[in-house]
Amino acid sequence: MSRVLVIGCGGVAAVAIRKCCQASEIFTDLCIASRTVSKCEALAKSLESKTKTKITTAKVNADNVEEVIELINSYKPDLVMNIALPYQDLTIMDACLACGVNYMDTANYEPEDTDNPEWRAIYEKRCKESGFSAYFDYSWQWAYRDKFKNAGLTALLGCGFDPGVTQAYCAYAKKHEFDTIDTIDILDCNGGDHGYPFATNFNPEVNLREVSAPGSYWENGHWVEIPAMSIKREYNFDSVGQKDMYLLHHEEIESLALNIPEVRRIRFFMTFGQSYLTHMKCLEDVGMLSTTPINFEGHEIVPIKFLKALLPDPASLGPRTHGKTNIGCIFTGKKDGKDKSYYIYNVCDHQECYKEVESQAISYTTGVPAMCGAMMLLTGKWNKAGVFNVEEFDPDPFLDALEKYGLPKKESRDPVLVE
Ligand SMILES: NC(=O)c1ccc[n+]([C@@H]2O[C@H](COP(=O)([O-])OP(=O)(O)OC[C@H]3O[C@@H](n4cnc5c(N)ncnc54)[C@H](OP(=O)(O)O)[C@@H]3O)[C@@H](O)[C@H]2O)c1
What we know:
This protein is α/β, with parallel strands linked by helices and 419 residues long. The protein folds into 2 domains: 155 residues, 3-Layer(aba) Sandwich (Rossmann fold); 195 residues, Dihydrodipicolinate Reductase, domain 2, CATH 3.30.360. Strands 7, 8, 9, 10, 11, 12, 15, 16 and 18 form a 9-stranded mixed β-sheet that branches. Strands 3-2-1-4-5-6-17 form a 7-stranded parallel β-sheet, sandwiched between helices. β13 and β14 form a beta hairpin. α1 packs across α14, α3 crosses α4 and α14 crosses α15. The longest helix has 18 residues. The termini are far apart. NADP nicotinamide-adenine-dinucleotide phosphate (NAP) binds next to α1.
């Protein structure tokens, strides 16, 4: 028996909510809240006759702490699932602390306004000290560790696929396969085709900010930063085939470097087709990825927000996306004094996801782990006070839940390594 407040009702949240409704013995009561309440109402209505979970809806602007506090106090949830945008992470964490409720999300904090001078000063100091220049990093949310610990509350950060399952794979490898891990390569392959010349698979603004940032990896105790898309490899993915992939900065590298300190190198690669890269470069070159407002015919517009309005809604890609995703981690390290390598990954089919939850596989592979992470917190399988990343919890019950709810693992003990 539990009451859960889900904030956000976009592509990822819709999957998480549909999956929660498949486990109504745990998710007995659910409130879907977002800025656009009509979207929440439409989803609630479509689930009405299909689940025993009692669903209500609410309107909330989660940029406003007071509004979130008021909603939490009136609904009295056991857990708040933040599946809105990274911009709302801190306001929702503040509201959870004020109301004494557990918190979780799927992406680490990044500010909407990267021109804010107060934020910028802290950001520039962090760039110099840490050595990577992405706008998002964990320092903001890790700063809440003592507050959550002292309040006896849990905040679970980044519980999607990557970040999320990839870290559970690391914890699983450490627990069952290795005494020490030497290298981790996280490989995110989307072999799906939606038929558009250019579209993003999740929120376009957050996605384009992420992939257009300089790449970076962790090596020998520090960050190595490289120009965006300047390291390319080819890999032959199970069930997908040969793909080009590019080294990106990604948030789980930061927490894995901290939590698996013996690791010598951690890299993250994502596959991109040439059409995506050409469009992105062109949009970047003409200033369409900029987050700085410009004046256009008397109106202030933010170029990347205007671009978002032009691009297909990721939630609409479900019916037209065909093909598979393959996301996982390749490890090298030592077991019982011997060198070994190990690959753990999931393959997910876009059309199978659409048949089940009316969504493409990117939202599915994020929404299912969010629901399984919520299940770990609600059933007490993950139970400690403080702010934690996924690899800090026991991976076994989480991977069992993923297996049961649609994201089974595959393994290889003789993988092709990435050069
Ligand atoms: N870990 C992973 O593997 C992974 C992978 C993909 C995505 N993600 C993360 O998943 C999250 C959701 O992505 P998505 O593709 O589902 O995005 P999306 O389709 O754009 O949905 C975002 C939702 O948040 C709501 N929202 C935005 N600002 C809000 C505010 N101030 N107050 C209340 N609600 C607000 C939006 O409501 P409106 O309709 O009113 O705008 C919308 O319902 C993002 O944080 C993304 O970074 C994680």
